[in-house]
Specification:
SCLT1; 1 helix; disordered N terminus; coiled coil; 0% strand; mainly alpha; rod-shaped; single chain
Amino acid sequence: MCISYCVQNREYVIHVNNVVACICLIGRVENVRIQRDSEVAQLQERVSGFQSQFEVASEEREANVNQINALNKKLLEANKEKEAAYRKCLKEVALMEQDQQVKTRDLEIRLQTTEDTRQQTVSELRRLLTAQQRMSARWKEECQTIRHKFEGKLTDCRAEMSHVKKRNEELTSLLKDSQAKTAEVSADTAILHALKYT
């Protein structure tokens, strides 16, 4: 009977221990549940915060996407304008180069014509200068010849003038002598005539 009591007592202890363990387990489970509920509440708050942040981020992303799309559209339009301006610039540059080439050719032709004209003018001026130098030398030679001839004639004229002057003086002396003799003859004739009638 004692053994039976001990066995029953032992089973009772085990049962009590099991009950205590269950109670402890229930307490631990309740603590875990409370902690889990708290963590779930915190997580829900964080999720709510993340949701708000996500919504804000989504709005910002949508705004950014719209802004990016607008910028891409403006960029595309700007690229089109750039391409059009570039093509226009290339066309203008090509026209300017063509015009410059035409002007360069015209200028080269004018320059060559001017150079040819200059060379012809220089050749003509040299020819005229040579002819003028020859003419000047000829005139100088002729002037010297004329001067020598004039000096010779002037010397001859001076000599002839001196001779004529001397001859004139001689004739003047002879004239005076002749006049004196004529006067004497006239006086003698008058005397003879007067004596004849006396």
